[in-house]
Amino acid sequence: MVGSSPYWIGLHKFGEQWIWEDGSPFLFANWRSNQPDNCCGADVTCTIVNYRANNGQWDDAGCVNVWKNPTSFVCKKSFYNMQ
To answer: Where is each C-type lectin domain found (predicted)?
Structure first.
């Protein structure tokens, strides 16, 4: 992912609550400085990452804006134990 364009990590904000796409509890955050900033005044906010611009820290963006200019995304995969 290093050097790629911004990608969506499956985190949304509805109202005042952050929600993962798969329903997992929101227990960890890696926001860059001054984020989230309620970008674009959007009712629904998506979380994106851009390694080139901010070393993997998160930024919020209006979901409508994210999908007008599609970005990449990350899929969740189950952990596989090799032992």
So the answer is: 7-63
Neighbour count for residue 26 (Cβ, 10 Å)? 11
Boundaries of every domain in the chain: 7-73
Cβ contact 12:46 at 8 Å: yes
* Phi and psi at residue 25, to the nearest 5°: -65, 145
* CATH superfamily label, 7-73: Mannose-Binding Protein A, subunit A (3.10.100.10)
Predicted structure pTM score: 0.73
Cα–Cα distance for residue pair 76/67, rounded to 1 Å: 20
Please name every residue paired with 18 in a beta bridge, in sequence order, or none if there are none.
13
Residue 62, CB-side half-sphere exposure with 13 Å CA sphere: 9
Structure tokens that stand for 77 in this block: 């995969």
Query: Which has the closest alpha carbon to 8: 78, 79, 61?
Result: 61
